[in-house]
Amino acid sequence: WATGGLVPDLTIVLDIDASLGLARVGTNLDRLESEPQEYHDKVRTAFVELTLHDPQRYRVVSASGSIDDVAHRIQIAVDEFIAGRSA
Predict the structure, then answer these.
(1) The model's pTM
(2) pLDDT of the residue at 25
(3) Where are the beta strands (DSSP E) in 1-87?
(4) Which residue segment(s) compose the domain that 31 sits in?
């Protein structure tokens, strides 16, 4: 890998139902967003499954709700991660 084996201490995966996420995008779709629903469902599943291989590093955070709600959930996940490292 280009990183020379370096991996982040914490990776946040923002999880949202594919149909809800696409609804947020609206009508200005790029190439990936124009893919069929099945594609987006598979991508979501792959990301969630990826977290199972290294649960110490990954945190899955629900991306449903407002921007402030999601930001708050991310802050909690980061705070918990940091607290766990210093315990």
Answers:
(1) 0.80
(2) 77
(3) 11-15, 58-62
(4) 11-86
Residues 8-65 pLDDT 10s:
999 999 999 888 887 887 777 677 777 788 988 999 999 999 999 999 999 999 999 9
Both structure tokens of 26 = 């609206």
The one-letter code for the residue type at 71 is A
63, 70 Cβ separation under 8 angstroms: yes
- Number of domain units in the chain: 1
Q: State the DSSP H helix or E strand holding residue 27, giving kind and residue range, or none if neither.
A: none
Do 37 and 18 meet the contact criterion of CB atoms below 8 Å apart?
A: yes
In a domain, 1, yes or no: no
In a domain, 67, yes or no: yes
Distance CA 34, CA 46 (A): 19
**Tokens for 84?**
């766990």
Asked if residue 81 belongs to a domain, the reply is yes
Token pair for residue 56?
């110490």
Residue 58 is assigned to a structural domain of this protein: yes
